[in-house]
Amino acid sequence: MASRPVAVTGIGIVTSLGKGASVNWDKLVAGQSGIHRLTRFPTDKLRTTIGGSVDFLLEEPFSATQLTFALAHTAAAEAVEMAGLGGPGDFPGELFLAAPPVEHEWPQRQRLDNQAPGTPHTYKGMLAAAAQAGEDLHVDFVNGTIADRLADEFGTKGSPITLTTACASGATAIQLGVEAIRRGQTKAALAIGTDGSIHMEALIRFTLLSALSTNNEDPTKAARPFAKGRDGFIMAEGAGALVLEDAEAAQARGATILGYIRGVGEAADTFHRTRSNPNGEAIIRAMNNALADAGVTPADIDYINAHGTSTPENDKMESFGIQAVFGERASKVPASSNKSMIGHTLTAAGAVEAAISILTLQHQILPPTINCDVPDPTISLDLVPNVARPAKVDTILSSSFGFGGQNVCLVIGRNPA
After folding, report:
1. Domain Ketosynthase family 3 (KS3), which positions (predicted)?
2. Does residue 54 contact residue 71 with C-beta atoms inside 8 Å?
3. 167 an active-site residue?
4. 244-302 pLDDT, tens per residue?
5. How many structural domains are present in the chain?
6. Which of 72, 121, 151, 309 is most open to solvent, judged by the fewest CB atoms within 10 Å of its CB?
7. Residue 228 belongs to what domain range?
8. What pTM was computed for the model?
């Protein structure tokens, strides 16, 4: 029971490529990029001026919290409709949401500071101003507000869970849903990863970490996972949602099962706030834990949906981990990065890539790693460079490696065993 597979009966995706699983899939296999020049705020004095922002859901102005909710709601609505589970507003399971920390960015805080009663420049005064400005603005400050609103909209059961494990968050949401179903806590779960955090402050924060690409001239060429000369990731927005179900219950109700989460594995190294431990121990352990939980070996994996951020260190460490786990087969199992086309959707990435993995199983096509004309000579992986590839795919390893050594891997299969 502890390691049994969990069925996936619905998926939803929103990225800079568009809204909906089919739209995203068609553009991914065509090798199209959603990275573009940012227009939401002035960028003329910033080192990075490009990103994978989602500019088609809301009319400006909007806060990061509002967009993050809209992304999650859109992806979840698609997944729930696809699953055909429960009636409108009556989802018969629990909600696990991966979302970025809830906070107003500089423009909102400056406006509140100007409106604050009494002594300005205090957090207490800003909270008072937010409360006076209206209920919605005040609620935007409250952690868990996005999950609460989603729970109300979809009628999920139990206490909605909000979590943040950096870039592994979306995969962690799936992991928690799988574990809840396995232990009999719920028959179904709605697992969502969402992030609408592209604003000036966030861009500057990542710039100060030297994490972002500054290859601004041609935005579509900037995300270069595993390529020689890669210089950082591309910040992006999006959401991925999965409806997870007890496999027997899904079969009993005649649901169309899209695939199975066969195994989950996590590991942390607590080495550094942003860097991976040079020994790769936690990355290797997360992969091995997922394989063991699924009851498979590296020889059973047909494709790796790589984390592949395009930063010099992450790609090197991920390649090191794959080589350690897969041995001589590391250069033979295909491993590509969706982030080459959609950028790094941060908190949402693990869920977006899990949903793309389900589509990979359905269509039996491997999405490419674009901008990979000159691979890093120190990385000996089959990166499915530039062009999608038909392939027989039964079992996928989807990896998510986050800041702070937070690592989660999923084994996703066409069949339960």
Report:
1. 3-414
2. yes
3. yes
4. 999 999 999 999 999 999 999 999 988 877 778 888 899 999 999 999 999 999 999 99
5. 1
6. 121
7. 6-102+142-413
8. 0.94
